[in-house]
Amino acid sequence: MKSALVFGSAGLAMGWAYIRNIQLPMGPTRIHWGGTVFGHRGCRGVDNIPENTLEAFQYAVSCGCGGVECDVRLSKDNELVIFHDTFAGSALQDVPETKRIDEFSLFELKELRFTTDPTSEIRIPTLEETVMFCKENNLRLLIEVKELKKAYLCTEKVLDLYRKYPDYMYEHTTLISFHPGVLYHARQKDRKVATGAIYARKTFSEWVKQSPPQVGGIMRLFPRLGDFLLVVLQEKISPWVSGCSLICPKYDIFDEAYLHRWNTRKIGVYLWGFQDKESCTLEMRQPGVCVAADNHYADFQPPKPEPDFDIFGDRERERQREMEEQYKRLRLQK
């Protein structure tokens, strides 16, 4: 028993020392992004406008969004394209259900049409086209790396755009992902890049349902254990080790103590996954918090402050006089 305790303590000490050794410094702050409403994939569920397209981003701009969120994958020829799902057939016409996005070249993807586009003119955009659109419209941009097979290559391709458009990318974009390795890899390559860790309570369970053959042994039998361990990794370890600028939980994890914990560290909070406007409470629409919405963005905006008509500072002077009088009274009592 004593030997087990000794070896266990030594292992913990070595693990802690290793983590401290690889820990990266804090990234550029994004706490000032609080109050921004992002168009989730531009928009979702809007008639005749496919998500994750320039048209979706334009819709978000026209409805008052201050930023957009997009999903990035690699094509067969390693070009960065904006698409959410692994399989192309989920949103594109005349594509086999089992054919993945990374099995098409960029040219082939540009030829495909969206099932929800009556004009047949909307096409899959590249990340660079999206960056240029957001730059021209003065938008903040959240870039979610969805690629898993070649996650690090995808990340490095995104970093190439930081070097190509430094004035815009470093100040107005944040690289986000469910994959902790992507975040660490990005900041290891470039310490000026802002990153954000995405997570939810049941991410692992959902993945098991979608890809059971890839999950083996204990984790397949106990998906809740996988959920717990993944949340610990994505919430407690990854943001600290990678020096994340944003923490990005699904909205149902949020509470006031949660916000205080992150904001005191100068880390912003980004909430997503809302099913309706009622889910976005007043506590979620305050400084230090930004949110993503599929549509009806005005319902997710922070409340407007009451107008201050005290332009000459009379109220402030009166408050200072009252404080001085109170201080004098206290001194006399002593």
Features:
single chain; 334 residues; alpha/beta; TIM Barrel; eight-stranded parallel barrel; 12 helices; glycerophosphodiester phosphodiesterase activity; GP_PDE_dom; PLC-like_Pdiesterase_TIM-brl
Number of helices: 12
CATH architecture: Alpha-Beta Barrel
In which range does the helix fraction lie? 40-55%
Radius of gyration: 24 Å
Biased composition (Basic and acidic residues): 312-328
Domain GP-PDE: 35-305
Protein name: Glycerophosphoryl diester phosphodiesterase family, putative
InterPro entries: GP_PDE_dom, PLC-like_Pdiesterase_TIM-brl
Write a concise synopsis of the structure shown.
By secondary structure, the protein is an alpha/beta fold.
Overview of this structure, please?
The chain is of the alpha/beta class. It has a single domain (26-307), classed as Phosphatidylinositol (PI) phosphodiesterase (TIM Barrel), CATH 3.20.20.190. The chain contains 12 helices and 9 strands. It has an 8-stranded parallel beta barrel with strand order 1-2-4-5-6-7-8-9, surrounded by 7 helices. A hairpin with a 5-residue loop joins strand 2 and strand 3 (80-82). Helix 5 (151-164) crosses helix 6 (166-172) and helix 8 (203-210) packs across helix 10 (223-242). The longest helix has 21 residues, at 2-22. It is globular and about 85 Å long. The protein starts with a helix and ends with a helix. The mean pLDDT is 87.
